From TrEMBL:
Pfam families, per database record: Glycos_transf_2 (PF00535)
Compartments, record wording: Membrane
Membrane topology: Multi-pass membrane protein
Top-level division of the source organism's lineage: Bacteria
Protein name as annotated: Glycosyltransferase family 2 protein
Keywords annotated in UniProt: Glycosyltransferase, Membrane, Transferase, Transmembrane, Transmembrane helix
Ranges for domain Glycosyltransferase 2-like: 10-171
Source organism: Reyranella humidisoli
Transmembrane segments: 238-258, 270-291
InterPro entries (alphabetical): Glyco_trans_2-like (IPR001173), Glycosyltransferase_2 (IPR050256)
Lineage: Bacteria, Pseudomonadati, Pseudomonadota, Alphaproteobacteria, Hyphomicrobiales
Length: 314
């Protein structure tokens, strides 16, 4: 670790195949930092990109001493790439931002003011989302509603990871060893004074979303299993209901038998077996989802692996 004084602000951006967005991103971020004045750094994390992202960021780091380029061994996913950047950065205040300029870096000025006034976290809350499909907006809305109902942690709706946090909050965040990281939820869990800054989300400057449906589903599953055991508890509720129905069915058969009816058994039997079998698989799946995460956690592997770091005054 360096003993040099901390920069006042670190900007941390995970980048996956962002060669086309990066130059414009750096131009705008550096302009904002110049405007604010004081010491700063920009930490870019190449999350195993397959395009020229690393070359672009390494060249930028060679040119500008403020820029630090970090390359991971392979693609680790958005949340872990961000975690890598957060553990490398050294600033007193840390701006978390995507490299695609969907979130305007110019808001840093207002966010700094709000921290000056005593906030621990200033999170961007989206009023509008330009250039995103109806499907993306609808699934995002449904996801935030669902997670809001499943957990007691106050996770603000319509807020991404775009936020300015203090060093104190960052150190607490980095002290959490969990692998399946839902960072916006973890920051909310930390508490302190967290205030929203409402803004309009823009379309990407270049490239396309790196969140295909499969990644979105995994992200949602990580968020829910990290912050709620309601699905596990739901298995119990459903179990009780099924047991009640089973018992009613049992009574019905006995009464029928006493009254001398032969039951028209096949249909009801198959219905019961099918229903119960389906339910059991569902419950096992839910238990499996939690168990799998427990297993991953118990291996204690590093969260991310850095291959190179270029630039910065160390
Ligand atoms: N990203 C990453 N690794 C991944 C996927 C995405 O580092 O595996 C980065 C990406 O380069 C961007 C940020 O995470 O800076 C958010 O991704 P994206 O803009 O594709 O998500 P969206 O805004 O569509 O939800
Ligand atoms: Mg984006």
């Amino acid at each position: 670790m360096s003993s040099a004084p901390r920069p006042a602000v670190s900007v941390v951006a995970p980048c996956f195949n962002e060669q086309d967005a990066l130059p414009e991103f750096l131009r705008r971020v550096c302009a904002v930092l110049d405007g604010i004045g004081g010491t700063s750094e920009v930490v870019l994390v190449d999350d195993g990109s397959r395009d020229r992202t690393w070359d672009v960021m390494a060249e930028a780091a060679a040119r500008d001493p403020r820029i630090v380029a970090v390359r991971l061994m392979r693609n680790h996913g958005h949340q872990l790439a961000l975690t890598a950047g957060l553990s490398v950065c050294r600033g007193e205040r840390i701006l978390i931002i995507d490299a695609d300029l969907q979130d305007p870096p110019e808001l840093l000025v207002d966010m700094m003011k709000m921290i000056d006034e005593g906030a621990d976290v200033v999170y961007g809350q989206r009023r509008q989302r330009d250039g995103e499909s109806l499907f993306k907006r609808a699934t995002a809305a449904a996801f935030y509603r669902l997670i809001g109902r499943l957990t007691d942690v106050q996770i603000p709706p319509d807020a991404g990871d775009f936020r300015l946090i203090t060093r104190r909050v960052l150190d607490l965040l980095l002290a959490m060893p969990e692998r399946h990281r839902f960072i916006r939820g973890m920051v909310a869990w930390i508490g302190g004074r967290q205030v929203p800054l409402v803004y309009d989300r823009h379309a990407r400057v270049a490239g396309e979303s790196k969140y295909p449906l499969a990644k979105m589903v995994r992200f949602a599953a990580d968020a829910i299993t990290s912050f709620s055991v309601v699905p596990l508890m739901a298995s119990m509720t459903i179990g009780w209901i099924m047991a009640g129905l089973g018992f009613a069915f049992f009574l019905y058969s006995i009464v029928g038998w006493i009254n001398g009816h032969t039951l028209p058994g096949w249909t009801s039997l198959m219905a019961a077996v099918g229903l119960l079998g389906g339910m059991q698989f569902l419950m096992l799946g839910i238990i499996g989802a939690y168990l799998g995460r427990l297993y991953d956690q118990s291996k204690g592997r590093p969260l991310f692996m850095i291959r190179d770091i270029v630039g910065g005054q160390k």
